[in-house]
Sequence to fold (359 residues):
Amino acid sequence: MNNFTGLLLAGLVGLLLVSCGKDEQRELPILGIPKITDGDTIPHRIPDFKFTNQDSQIVTNETFENAMYVADFFFTSCPTICPKLTRSMLRIHDYFEGRDDLLFLSHTIDVRRDSIPRLKLYAENIGVTSDRWHFVTGDEDEIYDIAEDYMSIALEDPDAPGGFDHSGWLILVDQNRHIRSFCDGTEDEDVDRLIKDIKLLMDE
Amino acid sequence: MAAIALLGVTISLSACADNGEKSEEEKMDHLLDREDDVMVIHDEVMPLNNDLRIKANELMAYFEENVEDLDEEAQVELRRLVERLENAREGMMTWMSDWSDTDRDAMEYEEALEYFDREEERISEVADAMRGSLKDAEEFLKKHTGNGDDHENES
Fold:
């Protein structure tokens, strides 16, 4: 084997290794139904929003300008699914402790009862003191409208449950407002998969 | 003789059990079962909660588009249906809030049994109101537009 053949062989092996690595490090797709405007396909994007968090601070898209986030919909008196959902959010929150590029956004769908003090108490009761996790309230219609937008990915998934009140989904959104992954927050294994997807997104 | 004595003890123990005296463990199991009975009713209808909001919005949109074509009776019926849908949804949210705010662990056995009986009745009424208002709203829309999703067979 001359030098040239050796180099070629080494190159091929290197290429193979890189290809394999890329296969494992798959890129997350952009989810949601894209818009087609003037022949251009525009990927789905989370629309503008403005809510208030447990510390009475205004939370908008700009809050997440330099960070990805996990979103969910809950209410503090929900007796069945939400406690599991919150435990899963907490698990992800604690897993990525110290990562300021990953934030959390929990929207209450019971704006009549879930006042700001009640959201604050809920956050404290589960041990959330960091400013990475926003429990927000706002105009009921705006919350429901944006929930439908987040859940629009359900239209692509025939197995998705109907009605986000009981869907239990956790949704991963990137810095560009694109939904990149989601999971059933009531299923531990599915949450594990989301954690892997978050790591992938962090490496992008 | 020993066999007769043993039989006597066994009969006495059975009699105690038949008196309705439950052990602490049995009481706890019974309370957990009663709690489940209540939650089963909640879980059956909770997925309809968002449908109530959607249906109320559909009715309101229909009202706004067709207000001039609807006679007085139909307008009154539509408003009443919207109110029933909203009340049914509010009824479920209030029930969950009350359930969440109640410290059931602090209750004595008898008190807890009465509580679960009461809540079973309350959540059944909420469930009936949810199913009933949805069904009537759909029938209204079907009658006036020929459309309406069927919730009749949903649990």
Summary: Chain A touches chain B through 16 residues (CB under 8 Å).
